Amino acid sequence: MRLLFLAVLRRHTGNAVTAERVRSHLEAAGHVCILKDAFDFGSPSEVADLITAENLEAALALHLYRGGRLLQGHGIPFGIIFGGTDLNEDANQGEKNKVMGQVLQEARFAVAFTASMKEMAQMQWIG
Questions:
Q1: Cα angle at 70 between 87 and 111, to 5 degrees?
Q2: Cα–Cα distance for residue pair 68/7, rounded to 1 Å
Q3: pLDDT of 127 strictly over 80
Q4: How far apart are CA 10 and CA 85, in angstroms?
Q5: Of the candidates 43, 38, 39, which has an alpha carbon nearest to the alpha carbon of residue 4?
Q6: Distance of CA 30 to CAs 24, 58, 80, Å?
Q7: Each residue's pLDDT tens digit, 33-44
Q8: Dmax over Cα atoms in the chain, in whole Å?
Q9: Domain spans, the chain
Q10: pLDDT tens figures, 83-98
Q11: Predicted local confidence at residue 108, as pLDDT
């Protein structure tokens, strides 16, 4: 499967390291994984162009707001990996929280790194 993986890839950050590890596992499982920095895209339409140009079949985003919002409405299935920023910062900002809830409704799955992160997400968006 040809996958787009959006993450914040600033050098020497936990996100960049995590994204590389996830990408490595996806490729070891036989997938083609195109890893891109979410901050390189100004709009979902730019992501749509990449999806078309690269003939991508599915997507994954590390961070519900930073990456997930760019994946909405493209017609390919996508999943989300929660980041600490999602739950500790962005969830507390009204408009971001609303967008994140909408992304979760469209996502096929969501993954949290810890049980406490999962619980926080469930309380925030599921109720």
A1: 40
A2: 9
A3: no
A4: 14
A5: 38
A6: 10, 14, 20
A7: 999 999 999 999
A8: 40
A9: 2-126
A10: 888 898 999 999 999 9
A11: 97
DSSP string, 101-117: HHHHHH-SEEE-SSHHH
Q: Give SS3 for 25.
A: helix
User: From CA 124, how far away is CA 36, in angstroms rounded?
Assistant: 28
| Stated pTM of the model | 0.92
The yes-or-no verdict on residue 52 having pLDDT over 80 is yes
On whether the 2-126 domain is CATH 3.40.50.1970, my answer is no
Statement: residue 14 has pLDDT above 90: no
Closest of 33, 44, 40 to residue 8, by C-alpha: 40
Number of helices and strands (H, E) in the chain? 5, 5
